[in-house]
UniProtKB/TrEMBL annotation:
This is Transposase. Residues 113-132 are annotated as: Disordered. Residues 73-107 form a coiled coil. Keywords: Coiled coil.
Length: 132
């Protein structure tokens, strides 16, 4: 009898050794985890009354936990989608800022170039050699 309770505890702890991790807690899975036949735990046998109660309690807790987990996963997925949308907006803003920065740098370059260009100055002396 003890092996059934140990098997149930391993399933509750998420550390099964004979069946897959994350398996649903059922009478069948407890029996398989205990190394017994899948149909070994029968409701009509008085020896299994306490075990069946414990299995049903663990089963309801597992379902409630799974429900809460699925809600949490849903919220996390929604949060991820919002973050992805925000990231896309920020990337677009960054691209616009880069383009504007390049445009301003080009404009500054052209202005600096114009400032350093020699101005056409009228010479004081005409081509004939006389002062104007």
């Amino acid at each position: 009898m003890n092996e059934y309770f140990l098997a149930l505890q391993r399933l509750i702890d998420g550390r099964p050794i004979r069946i897959g991790k994350g398996s649903e807690i059922t009478r069948k899975n407890v029996a398989l985890e205990a190394g017994k036949d899948a149909s070994a735990i029968k409701a009509g046998r008085a020896v299994f009354v306490n075990l069946i109660k414990d299995i049903e309690l663990a089963q309801s807790k597992q379902k409630a936990s799974n429900c809460a987990s699925s809600e949490r996963v849903k919220r996390l997925k929604e949060s991820l989608e919002r973050s992805k949308a925000q990231n896309a907006r920020l990337e677009a803003d960054l691209e616009r800022s880069r383009k504007q920065c390049l445009m301003l740098m080009q404009e500054l370059f052209l202005r600096k170039k114009e400032e350093h260009r020699p101005q056409s100055v009228k010479p004081d002396i005409s081509p004939s050699g006389r002062k104007s």
